[in-house]
Fold this protein.
Amino acid sequence: MNNKQELLRALPKVDDVLNHQLIVEIDDSVARSLIIEAIRTEIDNKRQAILNNEVTDYQAITENVIALAVKKRACKDSEMNLKAVINATGVVLHTNLGRALLADKAVKAVTDIANQYSTLEFDLETGGRGKRYDHIEELICKITGAESAVVVNNNAAAVMLILAVLKDKADSQAEVIVSRGELVEIGGSFRVPDVMEQSGIVLREVGATNKTHLRDYENNINFNTKALLKVHTSNYRIIGFAEEVDLTEMVNLGKAHNIPVIYDLGSGLLYDLASKGIGDEDTVQMAVKTGADIISFSGDKLLGASQAGIIIGKKEWIAKMKKHPLLRAFRIDKLTLAALEATLKIYSDLDRAAEEIPVLSMILASEEELRLKVKKLATLLRDIDKLTITLENGFGQVGGGSMPTVKLPAVLIALKTEKMTVQTLAEQLRGADRAIIARIQNDSLYLDVRTIAESDFAYIASVIKSIVEN
Ligand SMILES: *Cc1c(COP(=O)(O)O)cnc(C)c1O
């Protein structure tokens, strides 16, 4: 009891904390009233904690401890909620961590357009109005071999727009045929059947989950059939007794019945990773060659650019999309467009693309390169007292619902310290100024250097050192 009273008396005064070096250092962007409020809150919290017997020693209520908490609290408001983190998971297209990283050239393009006026919808030759879609149509066609192209916000919007142009407003019977094996759900609640329902088009599911034959499509074609839809099962594979109809067969069937064939390709791979021994994903160029009428894919998956939905295909269809009112609702933003154009330009030289587009260079990193990289980080970590590191062979992933069966070889750094559990260590890493997101697996904490920039190694080592040595 006595101790409680003494602790309460020992609590620092508001003015003492206000004059503490840590608080004096806070820059002008944080209002003084906010700092004082934070000091009061922190002191009150400590008082309550003492009364509840949660704090029983002086170490927990020093001016230093309270000033640190105040600084954190007060600066929170001026800090961004959306902020950069270090992805140490080895998952290249980590959906929760923002999918694709942009190439330097794309970043520069975004910055240029962000704080200056631009030709977004302006034609420099005529001095009149231009179209935002024209900036990249030719480029997309050149790279993919398609006739025509248009871009929207994301691939989900692309699929909606495609379905919307297939269906006449008044036609409540309009149908699209799709295989039961391809009724895909993509993380973040994109479900093919739900999207189709929104568009008002009737979904005619054919075949079985594991097997769909060409005759399943053929037997279901009727007067109301507006299209045959193929959806790339980007994020899963049906293995075993399974069969799907390939795109070429569907295109032939569509031609015979004068019905367009649509392909939701998902990822939008422009660089042939399979030829480098990684996965067996078809490229966009291959899909175009089959003669599909309309193809759509994402900008921020394997393509490695900004969030966008790219629609390519026959001129007559794309022209209809360009006139559809939904295009305005799904309009692509200028910053997105800048990043997309800059990234697509890199693809004119595929070797350069492999080097300059982060998604590709990370996926293509060889085991040898990764070993060298691991060595550099491991060397820094070995100097840290009370930290045990071991190297283990493991796997990373492409992620983002792309190439689910591909296991990217990885040399993982496992971290251990007697000071805390791996869960606590992971939590502390997430609490760093720039959060470090590590992978917890089988009760171990791993860093996978595939997705870490070498320029972050020193920072990572300093964070870990301060966590385990203090
Ligand atoms: C990822 C994906 C989508 C959704 O694309 P977003 O760009 O995230 O909207 C749709 N279809 C398939 C097959 C996908 O893989």
